[in-house]
Fold this sequence. Notes:
InterPro entries (chain B): Cbl-bd_cap (IPR003759), Cobalamin-bd (IPR006158), Cobalamin-bd_sf (IPR036724), Met_Synthase/Corrinoid (IPR050554), Meth_synthase_dom (IPR036594)
Radius of gyration of chain A: 42 Å
Organism (chain B): Bacillus badius
CATH class of the largest domain in chain A: Alpha Beta
Shape of chain A: rod-shaped
CATH superfamily of the largest domain in chain B: Cobalamin-binding domain
Number of helices of chain B: 9
Structural class of chain B: alpha/beta
Largest interface: A-B, 28 and 22 residues
CATH topology of the largest domain in chain B: Rossmann fold
Oligomer: heterodimer
Strand content of chain B: 5-15%
Keywords (chain B): Cobalt, Metal-binding
CATH architecture of the largest domain in chain B: 3-Layer(aba) Sandwich
Pfam family, one (chain B): B12-binding_2
Order of helices and strands of chain A: EEEHHEEEHEEHEHEHEH
Distance between the termini of chain B: 50 Å
Helix content of chain A: 40-55%
Strand order of the largest sheet of chain A: 1-3-2-6-5-4
Number of strands of chain A: 11
Protein name (chain B): B12-binding domain-containing protein
Distance between the termini of chain A: 117 Å
Number of helices of chain A: 7
CATH topology of the largest domain in chain A: Transcription Regulator spoIIAA
Number of domains of chain B: 2
Amino acid sequence: MSLYNQPLPIPYIQIDKEGNILTCSGAASRMFDLPADNIVALADVASKEKLVKFIVYQEEPCQFEVNLRTKTAPAQLFDIHLSWDGQANGHIALLPKDQQNEHLEERLLSLQNRLSSTNFELLAKKEELERALIRLRELSGPFIALSPTLAFIPLFGDITREKMESITKQALHTAYEGEYTHIAVDFTAVGQIEEKGVDKLLALFTMLQYMNGAKIEVVGMKPQHSQMLHSFHREWPFAFSPSLAYVMHGKDK
Amino acid sequence: MNKEVHELAGYLLEGDALASIDFLKGKQELTTLEVFDQLLTPAMQYVGELWESNKITVADEHLATGTCDFVLSSLFPWQKEHSSTNKKAMFLCPEGERHYLGLKMVSSLFVEAGWSVRLFGSDLPLESAWKAAERWQPDVIGLSVAIVYHLPLLQDYIQRLSGLSSQPSIILGGRLAGMYDLQSYCSEKTVIFQDLHAAHLWLHTQKVEGEPNVSL
């Protein structure tokens, strides 16, 4: 193989029909590990077949992409421009292409990364919110001991099944540790009431009664609450009082 | 190569994610494995063939890959934090390796089988992979390779990750696993998935072996 003595500004390689390298430009020898005997030896494994196909079977001038092994990279994308002369010598100009695609590749990669990190962020936020929601439910019905025999459960927000389940666990645990004869449940800060929430609330009242034999008194009931509760057609075997003060006063008598 | 695969490849090459998604949504009768194995994988292989026959450029391939990724993300869950089975799997490609679509499909198969899954995707340095695995303690680590000159690096990954305190099973997949015998790059315990069917079969076996005893 000889060095092509014209100062071509781009990598240039001349081959025969079998792909044997006959001559190359200075730019090509600087870029590739030459002398390789055959141009196919420069191709990346996945590009060999394509290169052979275009060198051996293509008679017309053509342009195609292949990945070639360079001195600096195991595979770099090139645009190959190939044409044949009358002596069946192939003239190949090799234009590196990676720089053109680099921008596109980086954009795609950053989009992929964003897709994956966004997903993780959303997942973390979702879990955080779920934890906050559970905590919020637990805090929406605190079990407060006003005296050794009187406990107070003010309910906040809507009466839902999930919220009542959260409150039940905590209320039963605290009630178990004390000896309460009266438990006042305050509806003053209650908003909407769901039917399944009411079922759970009634179950809680029944359990508290069984555990302590305590008298359950519902206080702070508003007209809209009583209308909602009435529409559910449930039995309410519990006392109703206008306010907590009334309960405390009555108990003191 | 059937007509449907060509149609899907056409949408992917145009970057038309919505058309690709609509096309796949019309295949409700297919399982996830069948969609991956009979439609998406052959469509992407066809894209590769188009490049080999000089009909498209690498830039077109990149667009098809990005679109396919988007379609997978939209239609198939590929990550899951809490599972019913309490088994954890993480998936990654070694440093420099950017062919991750197969890895993502396998992640989805694991999610579907009830595993907790973390997909780290392409190009994850060994040190980062090791730290993430030491923190999360996965039962399985899945690696994927498509490029021959990444194989020497793969050996380092398998050796180092096999030494983790959670002693995870190492699974190897990717284009090369279907083409060559990669056993010499693996440890004795490494499981090689030659294709998506092998992954499906392995998951099924695990399910039978690890099924909780309902009478307890």
